[in-house]
Design goal:
CATH class of the largest domain: Alpha Beta
CATH topology of the largest domain: Heat Shock Protein 90
Number of strands: 7
Strand content: 5-15%
Order of helices and strands: HHHHHHEHEEHEEHEE
Largest sheet: 5 strands, mixed
Mean pLDDT: 78
Strand order of the largest sheet: 2-4-5-7-6
């Protein structure tokens, strides 16, 4: 059911209920009242309310009251409610005359009845504005989520070619000199790409899957760097219960090799450690080298790190952090802190 049809369903149902309550109350207070005339007047009054509120809705939309500040909307609403309520009672008296229920003392009830009419119109206005504001807020949230989804998809589309390019460069260096190792490397790359393709369907993946991808990647790089690359792992068992962005960990490890170990003649080490504390998973990546930050020639804070920061921000907000700094003269430390969440649903799923 579309929004316009839903509006009419609530309009008819609401004012029909109003008419029914009017009839019940009048019958209970005045049992001798002519029921047919009473029903006619109640239906007429409900129809009048329906017509006036529908016209009022037209004014609200045409004048764009939802787009103006709330402080300016309130006076307009109050004035309009009074202007709408004033003619309601004279119309009711005129209809009473037509059905033979008119008496001169009906005019004595006009002030009190008008005040009651203002109340019912105000109640209708309150419900209508609350619905509109809620709908507008919900639409805003969906738009914001859609923009985040679009940005995430863009970041991931950039990340995968970046990784594949570097991996293929590693394999190319082996093809002529060590064909056997190059075949093994191609198999490892195939495993990584399989994980990547599966990960593209998700915004988050299990840490275990990401860890396995990193193992394959480091083994792939070891075929190129040989003794110049040493790897160490210290993974806390609770880490496997966490979800992380696909290829995030691999990107950070790759960053350590590209900007650290590859620049050192003697090579270096990559150490991956995780632990869980107060519901937060801490990931620590230590690599040989130096992080040079804040200089024009700095390439340490490259595409991979900027991409990872954006992805963490989009998915976790301020609950996740990424830090990179020099732990000492020979070691760069990258720290990622990620909260535990059960799942991450795309609005497009």
């Amino acid at each position: 059911m579309n929004k316009y049809k839903l509006y009419w369903v609530f309009q008819i149902a609401g004012w029909s209920t109003y008419a029914l309550m009017q009839i019940i109350v009048w019958v209970l207070v005045n049992p001798d009242t002519n029921t047919s005339n009473l029903i006619s007047i109640s239906v007429f009054e409900a129809f009048t309310f329906l017509s006036f509120t529908h016209f009022y809705r037209y004014i609200i939309i045409k004048e764009g009251w939802l787009q103006i500040p709330f402080s300016k909307t309130i006076p307009r609403v109050l004035v309009t409610l009074v202007l709408l309520a004033i003619p309601l009672y004279p119309l009711k008296i005129g209809f009473s005359f037509l059905v033979g229920m008119y008496t001169p003392n009906l005019w004595n009830s006009m002030p009190g009845t008008t005040a009651i009419n203002v109340f019912f119109l105000f109640l209708w206005t309150l419900i209508y504005f609350l619905y509109l504001y809620f709908e507008q807020y919900n639409r805003s949230l969906k738009y914001e989520a859609a923009m985040k989804e679009t940005e995430l998809a863009h970041l991931k589309s950039q990340l995968n070619p970046h990784f594949i390019f570097n991996a293929l460069n590693s394999i190319r260096a082996l093809v002529d000199e060590e064909p056997a190792k190059s075949k093994k490397a191609i198999t490892q790359l195939s495993n990584i790409l399989r994980s990547s393709l599966i990960g593209d369907k998700k915004k988050l993946t299990k840490f275990e899957n990401e860890y396995n991808t990193v193992r394959d990647y480091l083994e792939l790089e070891s075929t190129r760097y040989e003794e110049r690359l040493k790897t160490f792992f210290d993974i806390h068992p609770d880490s496997y219960d966490y979800l992380v962005p696909p290829l995030m960990l691999q990107t950070l490890v790759e960053n350590g090799i590209k900007h650290g170990i590859s620049t050192l003649k003697e090579g270096g080490t990559i150490k991956l450690k995780t632990f869980v504390e107060n519901g937060i998973m801490h990931i620590q990546i230590r690599n040989s080298g130096q992080f040079i930050n804040g200089t024009p020639s700095n390439k340490s804070e490259g595409f991979g790190l900027k991409n990872t920061r954006q992805r963490l921000k989009l998915i976790y907000g301020d609950k996740a952090t990424l830090k990179i700094f020099n732990e000492n003269d020979n070691t760069v430390l990258t720290i990622v802190e990620i909260p535990q969440i059960e799942h991450y649903e795309s609005i497009n799923n």
